[in-house]
Amino acid sequence: MKPSTLCVQAGWQPKKGEPRVLPIYQSTTFKYDNSEQMARLFDLKDSGYFYTRLQNPTNDAVASKIAALEGGVGAMLTSSGQAASFYAVFNICEAGDHFLSSKTIYGGTFNLFGVTMKKMGIECTFFDPDSSDEEIQALFRPNTKCVFGETISNPGGHVFDIERFARLAHANGVPLLVDNTFATPINCRPFEWGADIVTHSTTKYMDGHACAVGGCIVDSGNFDWMSHADKFPGLCAPDESYHGLAYAESFGKMAYITKATAQLMRDLGSIQSPENAFLLNLGLESLHLRMQRHCENAQKVAEFLRDNERVAWINYAGLPEDKYYALGQKYLPNGGCGVIAFGLKGSREDAIRFMDSLKMIAIVTHVADARTCVLHPASHTHRQLSDEQLREAGVAPDLIRLSVGIEDIEDILADIRQALDNM
Ligand SMILES: *Cc1c(COP(=O)(O)O)cnc(C)c1O
Predict the structure, then answer these.
(1) Of 337, 369, 378, 413, most Cβ neighbours within 10 A?
(2) pLDDT average, residue stretch 38-50
(3) CA torsion 251→49→78→147, rounded to 10°?
(4) Alpha carbon of 177 to those of 129, 170, 369: distances in Å?
(5) Rounded distance, CA 375 to CA 364, Å?
(6) At what angle do helices 409-421 and 348-357 cross, to 10 degrees?
């Protein structure tokens, strides 16, 4: 089935007499007839629900919808996008390991990789995605376990050359992990370009209504862990916490996502609540319609800003003069996302005056939902950083992140126009 149909139909397949709409299984636990049945579940010999921290039917239906949209073999929901990014890497890296990440990624992920995971003994080297193949190749070490990047970076709007980084990762015997939050599988399916694992903050477009924080990890099933067994003992060697079972041997293409669920979710928690999964599913049912409108509106706003004399610069891959236009045409032929990064002529104060003059468009920390919203990272999310530190983190001090919603384009443009006139 096509993505639009999957948005509406995939995941929950009711049998005779069951609810047409995905029910919220608001239950921590599940009943069995005897002790032996339960024991087999704990040994991973049978599959079935026993405790919602590991699996829940509502969550599984939504995870399988996202897996279908991405073209993966399996998926797991997490309580947030942060948990998804952490588990995705931690599932294959342990203390003493190293991995590579693009430096143009979401600030929360940058901190997770550069500061918090470092305290766990896992080292991340951030690379400039515009570096040459030779420069990237030189960063690989014998203990490098994966490469990470964002399809469209938050907040800069850079497009990641997935096919190129998949080739570099595979040449070094490691998988490519891609955070596909901003593009969503409606506009890009990273597995088709060689990515092995996809992560999402479902908090953004997938929910789309700013009502539930959540995340997801999707496994393509394509990475051959066994042919690099020495690099990935967590997947290929016996797990003592499951009587010596080896995931890659027992679960084949499902090894990575089974380990993430059976081991990481079991031990660390961070499950998405079934109620949030239900809300996420409602969002997914209209994702294809909303993404189309977000992109149409953002394209018009980007063209308007580009042509306005008060605007100093703009990043939007849909503009032919954008640095990432060619990559955008390759990976995002139907449009990228609704998020635009731009700077105004003048000082930080001018940027603040512009934002304070907006009437319909609200200043919020959130991004990528139905309502148009705006944020000035230098004054808000990245407030503690000096201009120098901001530039190092890839955020221009004057960068305004405008998340274009699905309202009528005339109303969005009118609000931006009057705020610019007010500066
Ligand atoms: C928001 C975001 C995250 C983190 O997700 P949360 O759901 O807020 O934890 C990760 N990656 C990207 C690209 C994001 O925009």
Answers:
(1) 337
(2) 85
(3) 0
(4) 14, 11, 24
(5) 6
(6) 130
Q: What is the pLDDT of residues 337-354, one digit of tens each?
A: 999 999 999 888 888 899
Q: How far apart are CA 187 and CA 206, in angstroms?
A: 12
> Domains in the chain, start-ordered, CATH in brackets?
3-282 (3.40.640.10), 288-421 (3.90.1150.10)
- State phi, psi for 65 to the nearest 5 degrees: -65, -45
Closest residue by Cα to atom 6, ligand 1, is 81
Res 387 pLDDT > 70:
yes
How far apart CA 181 and CA 185 sit, in angstroms, is: 9
Q: What are phi and psi of 337, to 5 degrees?
A: -160, -175
Q: Are 219 and 257 in contact (CB under 8 A)?
A: yes
Residues 6+ apart with CB under 8 A from 246: 235, 236, 237, 238, 239
Question: What average pLDDT does the segment 225-253 reach?
Answer: 94
Q: Residue 107: what pLDDT?
A: 87
Q: What is the best residue among 104, 109, 110, 182 to mutate for testing ligand 1's pocket, by most ligand atoms within 8 Å of CB?
A: 109
pLDDT (tens digit per residue) in 84-140: 999 999 999 999 999 999 999 998 999 999 999 999 999 999 999 999 999 999 999
Cis bond upstream, residue 57 (ω within 30): no
- Cα(275)–Cα(277) distance, rounded to whole angstroms? 5
Q: What is the DSSP letter of 405?
A: -
Determine the residue type at 305.
Answer: L
Quick one: tokens of 346?
Answer: 């003048």
Q: Is ligand 1 within 6 A of the CB of residue 151?
A: no
Whole-angstrom distance, CA of residue 358 vs CA of residue 368: 18
Element (H, E) at 331: helix 325-331
Question: What is the rounded average pLDDT of the residues 164-173?
Answer: 98
Beta carbons of 62 and 11 less than 8 angstroms apart: yes
User: Nearest 5 degrees, angle CA 207-CA 208-CA 211?
Assistant: 65
Nearest CA, atom 2, ligand 1:
201
**Ligand 1, atom 12: closest residue by C-alpha:** 106
Q: Is there a contact between 75 and 67 (Cβ–Cβ < 8 Å)?
A: yes
The answer, as to whether pTM is greater than 0.85, is yes
